């Protein structure tokens, strides 16, 4: 029996297993369900005969580490068991922790980010062991519980325990899936990030809004300060950051030109009608995406936001800001540069507090194992791979792989419309089982990868 047929035959069993882990509300920021899901994952590993080690660093949630298999090739896998808060439950069409299939889509918090990919990888490994009575490659698997908090302890974890995996030949990252046209995607990196909170406080108490003729407004001050960070088309206007951006190489531009990008399908998947800056040309849209910073306001709050009116002059205003970083930018310096920029523009009363930072991570475009993977993924999916220079988002890949020169790839059940971090998060059922089958195929193919071709 072909592996795809075997998977579809046991479809209900795979879904039941997925539902078990999705029903645990492991929201790291709230501290709920974290230790429960850790025990559940450890039990799942024991079912395939693998014991996991648990590490904690600086009071972190547990890091799970498993090492098993045999052969000359070593694959590092990274996943996380924590999920985002649900947000407004009224915006969900079903209970976020009671998985439900509607119109061929599996809805649940964490199914896309990242429990779905975690589970299908474990199922693929079990399939491999059942069929061949062994795991034909060495696997080192790290599963953390603070990714949705910005992985604040991962750098320290890597410094202390990096010797356990720094000899890996390849890293399978937590994300992965297909593009808006259903083609599997290979990424050559992840953007960095600096996430910070900006605050303005003027005076010791809120005032009646009639005092606006006497005093400056903390809210207006913050809005004006934010307006100095980017222009109307969304380009960053902080010279100390923009001046160090590297121009794309000829090879990068060639990959960009070759990238398959359907603007209309992408807009539809995201629920938008146009791109920032009103760009319509594919090259300009992708150049902006890969080689320029973003400056996003994640949250903005001050004063009265309840029903009806309250004519008040707030003494405080706050904003949460994330800046995505590209090559040649140091994530540890960004918050300080933003603070200095604001002072230079006369906003001495705006405080900048860094919440997290993560470096840019990249994989060498010419790495032979990536070319091998592209060929194998195309065989499994029976579709051409869409090669992208970088993910839109950020992950702590630098600490686990890039600093050790371990190339990264992604493979999973995602597509552009999964609503990760939003209400009604989901994956398509067909994508889940296609990714499960493809993961099985890739693990098997890596056992045949020649040692001399390794990095």
Give a description of the structure.
This protein is of the alpha+beta class. It folds into two domains: 3-190 and 360-453, Aminopeptidase (3-Layer(aba) Sandwich); 192-245 and 292-358, Alpha-Beta Plaits (2-Layer Sandwich), CATH 3.30.70.360. It contains 14 helices and 19 strands. The strands form six sheets. It has a six-stranded mixed sheet, with helices on one face. Strands 12-14-10-15 form a four-stranded antiparallel sheet. A three-stranded antiparallel sheet has the order 4-5-19. Strand 1 (52-55) and strand 2 (63-69) form a beta hairpin. Helix 4 packs across helix 14. The longest helix is centred in the first third of the chain and has 22 residues, at 111-132. The protein is globular, with a radius of gyration of 23 Å. 40% of the residues are buried. It comes from Anaeromicropila populeti. Keywords: Hydrolase, Metal-binding, Protease. This is Acetylornithine deacetylase/Succinyl-diaminopimelate desuccinylase.
**Share in β-strands:** 15-25%
Q: Number of helical segments?
A: 14
Main sheet: strands, sense, barrel: 6 strands, mixed
Relevant CATH superfamily of the largest domain: Zn peptidases
Shape: globular
Can you describe this structure in just a few lines?
InterPro entries: Cyt/Met_Dipeptidase, Peptidase_M20, Peptidase_M20_dimer. The chain has 455 residues and is of the alpha+beta class.
Q: Which SSEs are present, and which pair or pack?
A:
Elements: H1 3-9, H2 11-22, H3 34-46, E1 52-55, E2 63-69, E3 74-80, E4 100-102, E5 105-107, H4 111-132, E6 138-144, H5 154-161, E7 170-173, E8 185-187, E9 189-190, E10 192-201, E11 207-208, H6 218-226, H7 239-242, H8 250-258, H9 263-270, H10 282-291, E12 294-302, E13 312-313, E14 316-325, H11 334-344, E15 350-358, E16 361-362, H12 368-381, E17 386-388, H13 397-400, E18 408-410, E19 426-428, H14 429-446
Parallel strand pairs: 3-6, 3-7, 7-18, 8-17
Antiparallel strand pairs: 1-2, 2-6, 4-5, 5-19, 9-16, 10-14, 10-15, 11-13, 12-14
GO biological process, one term: lysine biosynthetic process via diaminopimelate
GO molecular function: metal ion binding; peptidase activity; succinyl-diaminopimelate desuccinylase activity
Keywords: Hydrolase, Metal-binding, Protease
């Amino acid at each position: 029996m072909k592996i795809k047929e075997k998977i579809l035959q046991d479809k209900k069993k795979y879904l039941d297993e997925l539902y078990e882990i999705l029903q645990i509300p492991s929201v790291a920021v709230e501290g709920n369900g974290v230790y429960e899901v850790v025990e559940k994952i450890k039990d799942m590993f024991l079912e395939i005969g693998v014991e996991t080690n648990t590490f904690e660093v600086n009071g972190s949630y547990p890091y799970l580490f498993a090492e098993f298999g045999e052969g000359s090739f070593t694959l590092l896998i990274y996943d996380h068991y924590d999920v985002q808060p649900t947000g407004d439950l009224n915006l969900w069409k079903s209970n976020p922790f009671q998985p439900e299939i509607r119109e061929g889509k599996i809805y649940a918090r964490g199914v896309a980010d990242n429990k779905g990919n975690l589970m299908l990888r474990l199922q693929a490994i079990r399939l491999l062991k059942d069929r061949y009575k062994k795991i034909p490659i060495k696997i080192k698997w790290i599963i953390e519980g603070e990714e949705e908090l910005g992985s604040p302890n991962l750098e320290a974890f890597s410094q202390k325990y990096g010797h356990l995996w720094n000899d890996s030949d390849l890293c399978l990252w937590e994300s992965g899936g297909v593009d808006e046209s259903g083609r599997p995607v290979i990424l050559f990196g992840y953007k960095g990030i600096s996430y910070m909170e900006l605050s303005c406080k003027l005076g010791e108490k809120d005032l009646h809004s009639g005092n606006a003729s006497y005093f400056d407004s903390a809210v207006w001050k913050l809005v004006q300060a934010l307006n100095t960070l980017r222009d109307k088309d969304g380009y960053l206007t902080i010279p100390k950051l923009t001046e160090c951006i590297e121009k794309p190489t000829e090879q990068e531009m060639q990959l960009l030109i070759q990238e398959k990008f359907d603007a209309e399908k992408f807009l539809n998947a995201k629920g938008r009608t146009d791109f920032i800056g009103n760009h319509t040309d594919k090259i300009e849209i992708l150049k902006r995406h890969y080689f320029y910073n973003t400056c996003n306001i994640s949250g903005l709050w001050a004063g009265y936001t309840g029903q009806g009116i309250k004519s008040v002059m707030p003494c405080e205003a706050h904003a949460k800001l994330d800046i995505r970083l590209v090559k040649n930018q140091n994530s540890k310096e960004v918050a300080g540069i933003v603070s200095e920029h604001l002072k230079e523009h006369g906003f001495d009363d705006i405080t900048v507090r860094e919440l997290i930072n993560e470096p840019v991570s990249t994989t060498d475009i010419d790495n032979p194992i990536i070319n091998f993977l592209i060929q194998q993924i195309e065989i499994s999916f029976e579709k051409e791979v869409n090669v992208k220079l970088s993910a839109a988002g950020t992950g702590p890949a630098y600490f686990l792989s890039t600093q050790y020169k371990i190339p990264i790839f992604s493979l999973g059940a995602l597509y552009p419309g999964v609503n990760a971090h939003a209400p009604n998060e989901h994956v398509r059922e067909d994508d889940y089982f296609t990714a499960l089958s493809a993961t099985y195929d890739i693990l098997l193919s890596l056992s045949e990868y020649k040692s001399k071709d390794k990095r």
